[in-house]
Amino acid sequence: MDVSVTTVHRRLHTLNYTERLHCKLQNH
To answer: What CA–CA distance (Å, rounded) separates 24 from 1?
Structure first.
């Protein structure tokens, strides 16, 4: 697997996680 691809995948994952956290914080 390409390193750059893995990095992008991880970044997307982190972004998704952060967005979920923000949504939870806003909901509360």
So the answer is: 34
| pLDDT tens-place string over residues 1-28 | 678 989 999 999 999 999 999 989 888 6
Residues 2/7/8/9 CA torsion (nearest 10 deg): 90
Burial class (CB in 10 A: 0-12, 13-18, 19+), 16: exposed
CA distance 10 to 26: 24
Instruction: Please give the model's pTM, rounded to 2 decimal places.
Output: 0.51
